[in-house]
Amino acid sequence: MSTLARPQLRRTGQARTAYLLLWAFLLLNLLIVELMLARPNTPAHNTLTTIGRVLGLHLGFALALQLLLISRLPFLDRRLGFDKLAGWHRWTGFTIFWLVVLHPTFVLLGYSQPGRIPILSEIPTLARQMPVLLGMIAAGLVGVIAVTSVRVARRRLPYEVWHAIHLLVYVVVVLGVVHQVYEGSAFKTNNFTQAYWWGLWAFAIGALLTGRLILPLIRNARHRLRVAAVIAESPDVVSVHVTGRELHKLHARAGQFFLWRFPGHNPWWQVNPWSLSAAPDGHSLRLTAKGIGTTSAGLRDLPVGTRVFAEGPYGAFTATGRTRSDTLLIAGGIGVTPIRALLEDETLDGDIVVLYRVRTSADAVLLGELRNLAHLRGARLQLLTGRTAEGNQPFSPGHLQALVPDITERDVYVCGPAAMTDAVLRSLRELRVPARQRHAEVFRLAG
């Protein structure tokens, strides 16, 4: 067995184990929820309120699961990566939204049915009960989060605004827990139910606090990150070099990203996911960003010595995920940053092809560095320019296969705008590139 095959078999086994544990956690907890409903201590008023109670219990579990997905547990992140976790996050969010719509709807229908009271007339009556009012407020906040998560709205909102709105999920969880505890009927359905819910919430909130607060505070206190240099790469792109103590203990790898904050220069709540644009060497880190939002546009004004607070490293978009000896790297726009870092990673051996998609050659950030690295590594670099049109679709299945005839025998890494990444992944599926050979970096779960 080759030296590449052994670690990749181990990696594949680790990912499979993570999936199995995630599914086991999901199915086991759903089974427990169903058992709660089998013999309730307090019968529901009628069939409609029974359905409302069923939906409410599943809503409580879905909220706890969502907390686990956004807690950035290293066990899941290192084995599955953010692109896979983003899929779980998206479907869990979709489920939460519909449960939030249906749970109160059936409860209201159940209470209005006996007296044939209009359903809207029941809302003020139930709202006089504080636990119910808190649940209504939480439902409204979920609606706001859902609306701003729609792709059309997401494209129009600056990342900083979108991120600030999504911080409301913590308010939703607090209100949801209080509603569940004091409303009572769902929280104490069976004798063991209360212990189960307290245990589940303690686990989910504990994981969140550990991954999002405790570990980042410990790491930043140890490494004491500071801005060492700020380099303009183009009129709207800037690279920030960061130094600190014992950076080799971060165990960062090319292709990973951090969540970056610059206290004193930007408000604490402004955080952005930026990939490393150079392979980490244990002495410094480099990020490269395009000035799109408030934070990224202000990077060029960062004074040297500015304190840096970084969470990470995150992501499984690394050479350790390879299953084949040869590699295809595909970048689009500023998505070139992790691709450039991967090209520098010496563990990425074998034959390497790099496809870099930009509108014009002037938009090709870090092109000079890519050319130098390609020359040193013996890699083939191809710049793909022009507007996407009927006659210019470089990532269609036919064009991809023409550019890289042995594409099915390579691991493929892709990072770029969402539309481009989706198009590449669709083509890879049509070309029957196995799923284990497809690697994509997305930031839908970050922040």
UniProtKB/TrEMBL annotation:
The chain crosses the membrane at residues 20-38, 50-70, 91-112, 132-152, 164-182, 194-215. This is Ferredoxin reductase family protein. Its main location: membrane. Coiled coil: none annotated. PANTHER family: 1,2-PHENYLACETYL-COA EPOXIDASE, SUBUNIT E, NADH OXIDOREDUCTASE HCR. Its cofactor is FAD. Keywords: 2Fe-2S, FAD, Flavoprotein, Iron, Iron-sulfur, Membrane, Metal-binding, Oxidoreductase, Transmembrane, Transmembrane helix. Residues 220-320 form the FAD-binding FR-type domain. It comes from the Bacteria. It comes from Paractinoplanes pyxinae. It is found in: Membrane. The lineage of its organism: Bacteria, Bacillati, Actinomycetota, Actinomycetes, Micromonosporales. It is a multi-pass membrane protein.
